[in-house]
Amino acid sequence: MSNLLLQLHEDLRFREGLSACMNCGVCTALCPAASYFEYDPRHICQIVQTGDEADLESLLKGDEIWQCGQCLSCKARCPRGNVPGYVIQALRKLSQLKGFFMYSEEGRKQLRIKRAIGHSILTTGYCVHPRLVDPAVHPEQGPVWAWAFEHGAELYKLCGSAFYDAQEGGLRKIPQDVLNELGSIFYETGAFKLWEAIEGEEVKTKNKQER
Q1: Residue 137 CB burial class (10 angstroms; 0-12, 13-18, ≥19)
Q2: Which SUPFAM superfamilies does the entry link to (predicted)?
Q3: Cα–Cα distance between 53 and 76 in angstroms, integer?
Q4: pTM over 0.85
Q5: From CA 41, how far away is CA 91, in angstroms rounded?
Q6: CATH of domain 3-103
Q7: DSSP per-residue letters across 101-155
Q8: What angle do the packed helices 53-61 and 84-98 form, to 10 degrees?
């Protein structure tokens, strides 16, 4: 068994997600992502089952594992009880820990997600808070969002939102003790260690480029 496959087997999601794939292709046939991208969960399971070290490394360095939307449609329909979505979760984590995600355009987006959504959860209690979606950073949101961002306090309160005030209502300010509890959850589940690994690879890449 290859070294990478051994590491995958350490992940409970991998062990539960892949037991006896017969490459029937049902998962790919019903997969929404496969309708839009060059994404094939059947192919991923096939690579993993063969256990070839070079093929696994190529998979971990590629875009394909980042195209799954995690809808888990595959879980409900696989005749053998496999869950390619779980396999993808394990592959993504290993790609992050090994630094292989930096080789992929889709993989490098993990840095943005970590810095945007991850930090938003810990500082506001929300996955995405309007105050943090700065038009200067997200020009794709367009001029309407730029206006909404500038007039947020007035606009959201017209809709009945607390908009980060310490009162009842949507977008209310989350108490610090609750934010501290969220931080404890991140710590205990190993999220901070994974974040450090992701940021560390960014630093390594920049140092290599500067040499």
Answers
A1: exposed
A2: alpha-helical ferredoxin
A3: 30
A4: no
A5: 12
A6: 1.10.1060.10
A7: GGGSTTTTHHHHHIIIIIHHHHHHSSSS-GGG--TTT-GGGHHHHHHHHHTHHHH
A8: 80
pLDDT tens track, the chain, 211 positions? 679 999 999 999 999 999 888 999 999 999 999 988 889 999 999 999 999 999 999 999 999 999 999 999 999 889 999 999 999 999 999 999 999 999 999 999 888 888 888 888 999 999 888 888 889 888 888 999 999 999 988 888 888 888 888 888 888 899 999 999 999 999 999 889 888 888 887 666 665 655 5
19 in helix, strand or coil?
coil
Domain-by-domain residue ranges, the chain? 3-103, 109-210
Q: Is the distance from CB of 91 to CB of 59 less than 8 angstroms?
A: yes
3-state helix, strand, coil in the chain (%, to 5): 65, 0, 35
Burial of residue 86 (CB within 10 Å: 0-12, 13-18, 19+) is: buried
The CA–CA distances, whole Å, from 74 to 42, 68, 91, 93 equal 10, 11, 16, 20
